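Work Package 3 (structural annotation) set out to generate three-dimensional models for the target panel prioritized at the project kickoff. During this period the team completed the workflow that converts sequence records into discrete structure tokens, so that structures can be stored uniformly alongside our sequence database. As a representative example, we reproduce one entry of 112 residues exactly as it appears in the project archive.
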Amino acid sequence: MFSTPQTEIVPIEMRDGVIRVGGTRVTLDTVVNAFNRSMSAEEIVIAYPALGLADTYDVIAFYLRHQEEVDHYIHQREERAEKVRHEVEARHPEMVGIRARLQARLDKQKRE
């Protein structure tokens, strides 16, 4: 027989300024972005095997209940990442465009 359900704790924690899921290194951003790309909880767990299925469902439910706050958090993280990228590029101008050059080289190799 079921007893009265206790309030469950969402399996997320802030470590080093980043919200992570279920004691793993997988970030909240990762799970939310996968969910927003129409991945199911099962597909997310397959893509990120460190995650548990129940934890993934809990995080998705948390996101749906607190979408505005989570989207704001993710937006702040994206802005910070962009700022850091610009700082690195300013210190190391040789790095500007490296991703595009590497992708072009990979594409060329695939065509050959």
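The domain at 12-111 is CATH 1.10.10.10 (Arc Repressor Mutant, subunit A).
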